[in-house]
Design brief:
This protein has about 450 residues and is of the alpha/beta class. The protein folds into 2 domains: about 325 residues, UDP-N-acetylmuramoyl-L-alanine:D-glutamate ligase (3-Layer(aba) Sandwich); about 130 residues, Protein-Tyrosine Phosphatase, Chain A (Alpha-Beta Complex), CATH 3.90.190. The protein is built from 16 helices and 18 strands. Strands 4-3-2-5-1-6-7-8 form an 8-stranded mixed beta sheet, with helices on both faces. A 6-stranded mixed beta sheet has the order 13-14-18-15-16-17, with helices on both faces. β11 and β12 form a beta hairpin.
């Protein structure tokens, strides 16, 4: 067996003929052989976009409240260890290797994918560290995702939009059905998408999961300049916000990260009660309030098992970190990193860029070929002055010429220039951009990861 983490990861990639093989039967068999029986609460987070943000906020707030938190997310940017965290610290190479070795010993002739191996290893680490709570991010869909082999005490669906159609279906309702598969009987399910698919409602009713939806069972509002702030979601003295980001949005000024809208505060309400005068999350972007609201709704649903006071909520919101989600890199010209890899996420990024002071924007752009490249380009077109495009050196990566062809077909208004690599595109952007201009690197985790590597950044 391999004796290094790099060796193990190479080995895991070779084990299954498919990178993605949905289904719970194989992973459930190995889980049983490992006797993985967590005795702590589990929060499962799914959705098209926003999963990583909700996981990060849950982790930050629960950590601030003094809980030992296990958090499993994917994919990683620079190091595999990013996927498995205990107490906000990445799991070591040694303990990941030990978990992989134990799984390998018991699986016999049962084939497991890279992600399935990783999911079981993460839970092994959480059990061995005796965490107080585990947060599990769905890898793909929900119903047949390896994470779903563990029962959720609370489940969250952040948003539902068209993505991964080869696996989840071609319509929003079909995709919603797959994502609703993480719901469990008698346990609250959270939906932070203001346009709740009927399939989500139907599945929650069929399995007996109480469904809390943004705008009804929970939500947020911003205090008006005159004061007040409203109670119980009525918006008295304030404005209740429930907006679908698939719609056209008019730009509104956003504060710097860590500072709130409307003077630095926002208010949250749910069936349980209200939490007022909250700081804006340290994660940038107005839509983080939807993610933050889903986070607080999940905590309200879990308040008997995981009580959290206001001080911990405020601290967790201010201290939360998540690389590659509208992330600002210090320096000039301004560099913004965003993994936005589908039209839904690109619309959010475009809206966030529109909220910033006007500036010439250079795009360092690359995507995977099985994504909706044209949809992302259309979403971002109005915000980009110069497109610096490069292919991704991976089996699913689009080539430079493929990306350039899409940009030409879409008739983008900005200049288009091809490059042999993301590093070369970034270098050109750094040379051409003035101090008051900005560079937006987006389109894939691969894009952001390579930019971070070039810049010598770490994701700790």
């Amino acid at each position: 067996m391999p004796n290094t983490l790099a060796g193990w990861l190479t080995y895991l990639e070779s084990l299954h003929p498919k990178t993605i093989a949905l289904g719970l039967e194989r992973v459930a068999q190995v889980k049983q052989r490992l006797n993985l029986q967590p005795d702590f609460p589990i929060i499962v987070v799914g959705g098209t976009n926003g999963k990583g943000s909700v996981c990060a906020m849950l982790e930050s707030i629960l950590h601030a409240a003094g809980y030992r938190v296990g958090c499993y997310t994917s994919p990683h940017l620079l190091d595999y260890n990013e996927r498995v965290r205990i107490g906000k610290q990445q799991a070591s190479d040694a303990e990941l290797c030990a978990s992989f070795a134990q799984i390998e010993q018991v699986r016999g002739d049962i084939p497991l994918t890279y992600f399935e191996f990783g999911t079981l290893a993460a839970m092994q680490c959480f059990i061995s560290h005796k965490v107080d709570v585990a947060i599990l991010e769905v890898g793909l869909g929900g119903r047949l995702d390896a994470v779903n082999v563990f029962d959720a005490d609370c489940s969250v669906v952040t948003s539902v939009d068209i993505d991964h159609t080869d696996y989840l279906g071609d319509t929003r309702e079909e995709i919603a059905f797959e994502k609703a598969g993480i719901f469990r009987s008698g346990h609250v399910a959270i939906c932070a998408d203001s346009d709740v698919p009927q399939a989500l409602r139907k599945h929650a009713q069929e399995v007996g999961a109480p469904l809390w939806c943004i705008g009804s069972e929970f939500g947020f509002h911003l205090p008006s300049p005159a004061g007040g702030g409203g109670t119980e979601g009525e918006g008295r003295g304030g404005e209740t916000h429930v907006v679908s980001i698939s719609k056209t949005l008019s730009p509104t000024p956003l504060p710097p990260a860590g500072e709130g809208l409307s003077g630095g505060q926002w208010n949250f309400y749910s069936k349980v009660g209200t939490r007022n005068s909250l700081p804006f999350p340290a994660l940038r972007g107005e839509f983080q309030l939807y993610n933050a609201s889903a986070t607080l709704a999940a905590l309200d649903a879990m308040k008997e098992k995981l009580p959290v006071n206001m001080q911990s909520v405020r601290r967790g919101l201010v201290e939360v970190q998540l690389a590659g989600r509208f992330q600002f890199v210090p320096g000039r010209p301004q560099l913004i990193l965003d993994v936005a890899h589908n039209p839904h996420a690109a619309l959010s990024l475009a809206h966030n860029l529109a909220n910033l002071p006007p500036a010439k924007t250079f795009a360092v752009f690359s995507m995977l070929k099985d994504k909706d490249i044209a949809g992302v380009v259309r979403a971002m077109d109005a915000q980009i002055n110069v497109w610096l495009v490069a292919g991704i050196d991976a089996p699913r990566g689009a080539t430079t010429s493929e990306l350039a062809q899409v940009l030409e077909n879409e008739g983008v208004r900005g200049e288009v220039k091809p490059f042999v690599s993301i590093a070369h595109a970034l270098n050109e952007a750094s040379i051409r951009a003035g101090e008051n201009d900005r560079i937006a690197a987006f389109g894939s985790f691969y894009t952001v990861a390579e930019v971070m590597q070039v810049r010598g950044m770490r994701n700790n």
